[in-house]
Amino acid sequence: QVQLVESGGGLVQAGGSLTLSCAASGRISSIGAMGWYRRAPGKQRELVASITNSGRINYADSVKGRFTISRDNAKITVYLQMNNLKPEDTAVYYCYYSEISTSWGQGTQVTVSS
Fold first, then answer.
1. Start-to-end C-alpha separation, the chain
2. In this structure, how many other beta carbons lie within 10 angstroms of the beta carbon of residue 50?
3. What residues have CB less than 8 Å from 90, skipping those under 6 apart?
4. Residues in a beta bridge with 23
5. pLDDT tens for each residue of the chain, 114 residues long
6. Using an 8 Å Cβ cutoff, are 21 and 34 in contact?
7. Greatest extent of the chain over all pairs of C-alpha atoms, in Å
């Protein structure tokens, strides 16, 4: 099994910044893809950003230019730098690690006040 531990969520005013981190540990045989989803109240889960083991990156259109995903393969950790946050970014953010199967973090709440 792979365990994921997230940190960095919180409450911030619109226009502010937060950085989320997610560290993977456990039965990891190679470096898989990692990324972040979010789920806002009353909305479907949305892929926010992803990064493959080779560094290929994908962002949701809604966060392009504001969010930056990065990873440290030595630490098997993925980061999400979120700038110019908007109230519509309010959600629970979940990191994932995908190798043969997909493992999920417990979720971290991000609340952006207007």
1. 40
2. 19
3. 40, 110, 111, 112
4. 5, 77
5. 899 999 999 999 999 999 999 999 988 877 789 999 999 999 999 999 999 988 999 999 999 999 999 999 889 999 999 999 999 999 999 999 998 889 999 999 999 999
6. no
7. 44
Residues of the chain by 3-state class (helix, strand, coil), percent to 5: 5, 55, 40
Q: Which two tokens stand for residue 41?
A: 């109240």
Residues 6+ apart with CB under 8 A from 48: 35, 36, 37, 38, 59, 60, 63, 67, 80, 93
Whole-number Å distance between alpha carbons of 98 and 5: 15
Q: Which two tokens stand for residue 26?
A: 């456990």
The residue behind tokens 């898989």 is 32
Structure tokens at 110: 């991000």
pLDDT score at 15: 98
Q: Hey, what amino acid is at 22?
A: C
Structure tokens at 37: 């989803």
